[in-house]
Amino acid sequence: MSRFIRASRNRHLVIAATAGAFFLIAPGLLSPYALITSCYALVLAIACLGLNLLFGTTGLLSLGHATFFGVGAYTGAFLYRFFGLESFELYLLSGIAASTLFAAVIGFLCLRATRIHFSILTLAFGQILYSLVIDGALFRLFGPLGWALYLLAGGSLYIPILTILGTQYAPGQFTSVFYYVIVTAFFGAMFLLWRITRSPFGIALRAIRDNETRAVHIGIPVRRYRWYAFILSGAVMGLAGALHGQLNRQITPQQLDWLFSAELVLATVLGGSRDFIGPVLGAFAFVGLEEISERWPWGRSALMGSLLILVVLLFPRGFAGAARLGIDRIRRLKR
What are the 10-residue block averages of pLDDT along the chain, 335 residues in total? Predict the structure, then answer.
């Protein structure tokens, strides 16, 4: 058994090292457009990993997780517009802090219910915040200037290229530099969530997911652990939202809408919510399918839907689940 665990751990290390090496040399191999697309896929992968801590590991489906993604982007944008924030590090930290705080409050309220009622509550809170932005009520808090910004862009905010470690990069350099920032955040989030899911806390979350009644009887504080998972999930979503805000430099109300939450769930399920690497595969697959559908001048949404249906029918357990089945079959044949 120990030999099997050691071999599995070594295999994971080899895969991680290979992926890390590829991501390090990617800017020299990819075109500028492909590099930007990879950045968006990595940010989406961080968001899906955060969502899956709650969905795949804890067993709770949130339909309002775009809230924390949007809060992570909007917080720094407001600080730039009204307080002159120019540091990306402060922008990132403020977004993570705000989304974590929102997750603590919203999670505390939503976790009074479970299953479908929990999902409805997260959807309701998400739509409340979305309406505050789309109707301009949030902008009114910042006085005449805030209202003027709302009238100018209908709830959207533009931010320029911020300084990274005190350095202002030109647009031509920014993408390559920021790519490595995103890669660092991606591997950092992966490592943190990997450790959490393999810790006693993560094992307790899976026990809650599989059998809540049994978890209660063996002494696991179910509601408190769910709340902790919700907060951690919201913090990772805030990280993804802040990265996306600086990458896109255009923060829009659509990043708070429930449709974006549904896309996050879809990408996670596409990759496989029961496998740790599944959300990453799903995020890259989702971005790839979007790129394919965008090349068609007509019926792009219909094509995207058709591709998603085809993939789900071919891989009902997600890409990670299909890969796991394939590896198991190969092992049986070798025996």
Answer: 50 66 77 90 96 93 94 93 91 96 95 89 94 92 89 89 90 88 95 94 94 92 95 96 94 91 90 89 89 74 75 78 76 70
Q: Is residue 228 part of a domain?
A: yes
Range of the domain at 74: 32-256
Asked if residue 87 belongs to a domain, the reply is yes
Domain assignment present for residue 175? The answer is yes
Residue 261 resides in a domain: no
Total of domains in the chain: 1
Residues 236/186, Cβ–Cβ less than 8 Å: no
pTM: 0.90
Q: Assign 178 to helix, strand or coil.
A: helix
Residues with Cβ < 8 Å from 243, sequence gap 6 or more?
43, 46, 92, 181, 182, 185
Tokens (6 digits) for 238: 């805030």
CB 239 within 8 A of CB 96: yes
Rounded Cα distance, 186 and 209, in Å: 26
